[in-house]
């Protein structure tokens, strides 16, 4: 290449062309198809001029993968990894390498979507069912959900469940024991403030004297104490209160379960089952309760049902209680949860099995006993006589002890009066105990681990009283007793992965969910130990790498959104909504406007919007949409004016959930502002804004960003997510804080919305890498190409299916909705049939029946190449022809490939085939399918059967026998 310049050869923009699917030639062809002369022309036709950014974003040049990784490595190396004994709900753990590489680092697991299409998601549904079973066995409860966001929010959910379920309707009081982890108290207090519940924090034994609707206890306590809670629980229940116990999963391997003590709810974090601390998250919380409260359980539940062949098959149970559907009647606003991390924890239990877990738990406990015995020998006194893994040591000169520890590279818990806390974990070794002896008792302490151990073996320690030893069996199901060699485990993980369709197979065009590329270079830093091994409460000077990364990413997001401040704390989009609404509420309160409590929400809104509004005790008033899917301006004006005295805010999505850039958006903001309200702009559709417009420019006051949509964090099969919020300056003083580590001087004393100060910090490097490798120019290009891809699909399908909503010049934004209702009318073929038939063609269905029932919402994203779009279009067109055969009566209404979809190998290999179409058409309807066939592993699943016969634990082996 004699004529290339050096900078061309350096391939500075290389990542941009890797991230964006279509190349120059395909782009030109697609532009021709949609009838635009250039990308600029298309954007001009599509995005209203009045909201276009006047200048380019100031985000720097794109960097190559190698450059960006090297730069991030420098940032990461600013983190100092001390040995952590801080505890407080976060413990070091060995992620089994077979799980690390084959789950956490495997796109087959991390790029999957939430399992709304269960026929192509049986693998992760099985892993989640295992997670529920682990939860049930260890907590001793009847019913468990498939993960919540973190321990603090799970505790807050327990409080609201107590409010709903308690028969003590007179009381407005919720009691929290003072040995609950402090950050949990902080998160629960925030939630209580919003609902107007009164909170009393006191010694656990004081609960009996209170008249409460519910109480939260911790087991073992935050300073390590193990005690029998049976009598306290009974005392609260006697007065019709509900008792939640926050428990430590590892301790429950050895301890009598809270369920056996009578608890109504048991919750906690599954982090120490193989998930790195990661400076606070993401981790899966578990939540279990009594069968009687099943309709009040927050989050998703995986249940066993059967498919059309009568075989057992898994699905999300009671989906009609999904928060999307219940809107303002929802129990909670949880949507994205922590699926990937729950799966890791469940695999940890599968790999170790009951015996392996007992060995781990017993080893941790023995080390704690040895440490305690040695220190007592040396004259130390311990705060408690009973413990599992955490001891609290009274020290005369705490400062000196902490300094000696720091000098030895050790973090002890430092927030206790006159004492230090030492929490041991799975990674603790003899050398660690030696070192702890030296730090506390000085060089030449003369303590001998083997001698101390021998005494304990002979005499016992009494640190777990006999009545609190677990006697019930755990993990007796076959799945926990089968895969203990690495070969077996590897194959088990792979066998489940094979059942699931993820982005590494084909495009997942989930409208509103932006299933774009999760580039490998973005994912690599997530498992660097510099990011994984940091405790969220480590001293700030050890977390400089994280702090720099959070600051820089925050600055970039400020630039992208046009806001003034960012909070990284919310660990999902819905949590961002909650945090943003809290900021709005506190802002109004600060101005003497506490009576403002009405939240306007257009009828097209995502279900989390009204669900979040009810979490801050706002009244939802629905604003109509017109026939074009836009906000009905007359209705908005009337309602805003009528309610002006009490108007708190509007929650609006932009571009609208109908996939259109509403021309009136700035006017909508003005109207709400004129009547004293604030504008919450749901940022889930940022993929249609970045670089072209911004929420700040449009005129809104606060938004959440779904980093797990627009900014490349993978969906993980239904989580993790990060939902940072951006705010204009006037709302900044009301952003979340944290009571253990302050987040920012300007928000001091505000409540927390998540357990960790910076939420799910360990996946922020993904978004950091994305922005670094794309630069301002690349990000803008991505938005433009997302719009082109969507318009291309809309154009290609439009002669065959009606495209429901269009904006100016008949353009759609980054997604389009196709209407299947007329076809249903003429043929009886449902949107469900089309969705399942797409599986036969190797595709995941688009978003079904949101925001409009009977439709599909397609969002291809910029990452899909033209070839993949064409395959999808081909499938949709073939399906249209199939529908025509049902319409014309050529195929029977009940015996056709749509109605029977998806087709499985069991169908094709069945010696009987009694259909009016042949096997080839069933499974290989077009030639391209044959090259890369994906086989759903179960036939269509019977939803009604599953909900009528609710089974949310692992079925016994017999069920699987034919
Ligand atoms: C995804 C989404 C949300 C909720 O985000 P989660 O991370 O799932 O809580 C809210 N609004 C819209 C429009 C969304 O698409």
SSE arrangement:
Blueprint lengths: L5 H4 L4 H6 L4 H11 L4 H8 L18 H12 L6 E3 L11 H8 L2 H4 L11 H18 L3 E2 L6 H15 L7 E5 L4 H14 L2 E5 L11 E6 L10 H9 L3 E6 L17 E5 L15 E5 L12 E5 L5 E5 L6 H4 L12 H39 L12 E5 L3 H10 L2 E3 L6 E5 L6 H12 L7 H11 L26 H12 L22 H4 L5 H4 L11 H18 L3 E3 L5 H18 L7 E5 L5 H8 L3 E5 L9 H10 L4 E7 L11 H10 L3 E5 L12 H4 L3 E3 L20 E3 L36 H35 L17 E4 L1 H7 L3 H10 L6 E2 L6 E4 L7 H22 L17 H5 L9 H5 L3 H5 L11 H6 L14
Parallel strand pairs: 1-12, 3-4, 3-5, 5-6, 6-7, 15-16, 15-17, 17-18
Antiparallel strand pairs: 2-8, 7-8, 9-10, 11-13, 14-20, 19-20, 21-23, 22-23
Number of helices: 33
The CATH homologous superfamily name of the domain at 525-772 equals Type I PLP-dependent aspartate aminotransferase-like (Major domain)
Radius of gyration: 28 Å
Which ligands accompany this protein? pyridoxal-5'-phosphate
In the predicted model, the low-confidence regions spanning at least 5 consecutive residues are none
Which range does the strand content fall in? 5-15%
Instruction: Give the termini distance in whole angstroms.
Output: 66 Å
> What topology, given as strand order, has the largest sheet?
2-8-7-6-5-3-4
Helix/strand/pairing category: alpha/beta
CATH level-3 fold name of the domain at 525-772 = Aspartate Aminotransferase, domain 2
Q: Please state the second-level CATH architecture of the domain at 525-772.
A: 3-Layer(aba) Sandwich
Question: What does the main sheet amount to?
Answer: 7 strands, mixed
The strand count comes to 23
What's the level 1 CATH class of the domain at 525-772?
Answer: Alpha Beta
Q: What sort of overall outline do the alpha carbons produce when their principal axes are compared?
A: globular
The averaged pLDDT comes out at 96
Cofactor: pyridoxal 5'-phosphate
Pfam families: GcvP2_C, GDC-P
Domain Glycine dehydrogenase C-terminal: 782-903
Protein name: Glycine dehydrogenase (decarboxylating)
């Amino acid at each position: 290449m004699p004529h290339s310049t050096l900078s061309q050869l350096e391939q500075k923009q290389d990542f941009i062309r890797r991230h964006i699917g279509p190349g120059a030639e395909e782009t030109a062809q697609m532009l021709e198809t949609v009838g635009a002369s250039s990308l600029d022309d298309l954007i001009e036709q599509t995005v209203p001029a009045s909201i276009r950014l006047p200048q380019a974003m100031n985000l720097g040049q794109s960097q190559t993968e190698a450059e960006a990784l090297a730069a991030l490595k420098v940032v990461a190396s600013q983190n100092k990894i001390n040995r952590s004994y801080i505890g407080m709900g976060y413990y070091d753990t060995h992620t089994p390498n077979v799980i690390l590489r084959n789950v956490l680092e495997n796109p087959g697991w991390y790029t999957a979507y939430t399992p709304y299409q269960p026929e192509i998601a049986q693998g992760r549904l099985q892993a989640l069912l295992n997670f529920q079973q682990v939860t049930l066995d260890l907590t001793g409860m009847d019913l468990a959900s498939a993960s919540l966001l973190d321990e603090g929010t799970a505790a807050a959910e327990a409080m609201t469940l107590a409010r709903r379920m308690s028969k003590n309707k007179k009381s407005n009081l919720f009691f929290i024991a003072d040995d609950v982890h402090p950050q949990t108290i902080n998160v629960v207090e925030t939630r209580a403030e919003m609902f107007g519940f009164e909170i009393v924090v006191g010694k656990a034994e004081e609960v009996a004297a209170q008249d409460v609707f519910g109480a939260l206890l911790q087991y073992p306590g935050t300073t390590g104490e193990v005690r029998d809670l049976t009598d306290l629980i009974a005392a609260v229940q006697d007065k019709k209160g509900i008792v939640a116990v926050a428990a430590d999963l590892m301790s429950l391997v050895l301890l009598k379960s809270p369920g056996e003590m009578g608890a109504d709810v048991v919750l906690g974090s599954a982090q120490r089952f193989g998930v790195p601390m990661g400076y606070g998250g993401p981790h899966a919380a578990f939540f279990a309760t009594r069968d009687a409260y099943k309709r009040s359980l927050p989050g998703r539940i995986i249940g066993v049902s059967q498919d059309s062949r009568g075989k057992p098959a898994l699905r999300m149970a009671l989906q009609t209680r999904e928060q999307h559907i219940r809107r303002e009647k929802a129990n909670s606003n949880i949507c994205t949860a922590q699926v990937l991390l729950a799966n890791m924890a469940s695999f940890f239990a599968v790999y170790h099995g009951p015996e392996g877990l007992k060995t781990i738990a017993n080893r941790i406990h023995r080390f704690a006993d040895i440490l305690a015995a040695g220190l007592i020998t040396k004259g130390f006194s311990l705060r408690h006589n009973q413990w599992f893994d955490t001891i609290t040591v009274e020290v005369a000169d705490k400062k000196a002890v902490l300094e000696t520890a720091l000098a030895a590279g050790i973090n002890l818990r430092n927030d206790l009066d006159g004492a230090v806390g030492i929490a041991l974990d799975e990674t603790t070794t003899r050398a660690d105990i030696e070192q702890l002896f030296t730090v506390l008792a000085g060089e030449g302490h003369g303590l001998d681990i083997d001698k101390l151990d021998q005494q304990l073996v002979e005499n016992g320690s009494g640190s777990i009283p006999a009545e609190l030893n677990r006697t019930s069996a755990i993990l007796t199901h076959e799945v926990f007793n089968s895969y203990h060699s690495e070969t077996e485990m590897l194959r088990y993980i792979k066998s489940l992965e094979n059942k699931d369709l993820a982005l590494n197979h084909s495009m997942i065009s989930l409208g509103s969910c932006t299933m774009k590329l999760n580039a490998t270079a973005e994912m690599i830093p997530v498992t660097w130990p510099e990011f994984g091994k940091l405790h969220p409460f480590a001293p700030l000077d050890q977390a400089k790498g994280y702090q720099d990364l959070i600051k820089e990413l925050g600055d970039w997001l400020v630039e992208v959104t046009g806001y003034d401040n960012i909070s990284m704390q919310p660990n999902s989009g819905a949590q961002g909504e909650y945090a943003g609404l809290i900021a709005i509420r506190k802002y109004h309160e600060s101005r003497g406007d506490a009576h403002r409590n009405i939240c306007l929400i257009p009828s097209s809104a995502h279900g989390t919007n009204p669900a979040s509004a009810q979490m801050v005790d706002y009244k939802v008033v629905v604003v109509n949409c017109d026939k074009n899917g836009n906000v009905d301006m007359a209705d908005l004006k009337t309602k805003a004016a009528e309610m002006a005295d009490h108007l708190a805010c509007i929650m609006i999505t932009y571009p609208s959930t109908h996939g259109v850039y509403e021309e009136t958006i700035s006017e909508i903001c003005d109207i709400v502002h004129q009547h004293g309200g604030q504008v919450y702009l749901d940022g889930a559709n940022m993929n249609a804004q970045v670089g072209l417009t911004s929420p700040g420019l449009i005129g809104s006051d606060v938004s959440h960003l779904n980093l797990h949509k627009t900014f490349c964090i993978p969906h993980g099969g239904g989580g993790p997510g990060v939902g940072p919020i951006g705010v204009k300056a006037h709302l900044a003083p009301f952003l979340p804080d944290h009571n253990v580590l302050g987040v920012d001087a300007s928000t001091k004393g505000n409540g927390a919305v998540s357990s960790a100060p910076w939420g799910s910090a360990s996946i922020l490097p993904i978004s950091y890498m994305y922005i670094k490798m794309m630069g301002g120019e690349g990000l803008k290009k991505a938005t433009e190409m997302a719009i082109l891809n969507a318009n291309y699909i809309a154009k290609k399908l439009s002669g065959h299916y009606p495209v429901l909503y269009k904006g100016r010049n008949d353009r759609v934004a980054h997604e389009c909705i196709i209407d299947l209702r007329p076809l249903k009318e003429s043929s009886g073929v449902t949107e469900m049939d089309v969705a399942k038939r797409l599986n036969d063609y190797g595709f995941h269905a688009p978003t079904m029946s949101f925001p409009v029932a009977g439709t599909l919402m397609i969002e291809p994203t910029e990452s899909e190449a033209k070839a993949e779009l064409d395959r999808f279009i081909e499938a949709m067109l073939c399906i249209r022809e199939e529908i025509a055969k049902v319409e014309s009566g050529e195929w029977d209404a009940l015996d056709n490939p749509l109605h029977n979809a998806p087709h499985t190998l069991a169908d094709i290999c069945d010696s009987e085939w009694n259909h009016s179409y042949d096997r080839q058409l069933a499974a290989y309807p077009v030639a391209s399918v044959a090259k890369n066939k994906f086989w759903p592993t179960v036939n269509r699943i019977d939803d009604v059967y599953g909900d009528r016969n609710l089974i949310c634990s692992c079925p016994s082996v017999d069920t699987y026998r034919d």
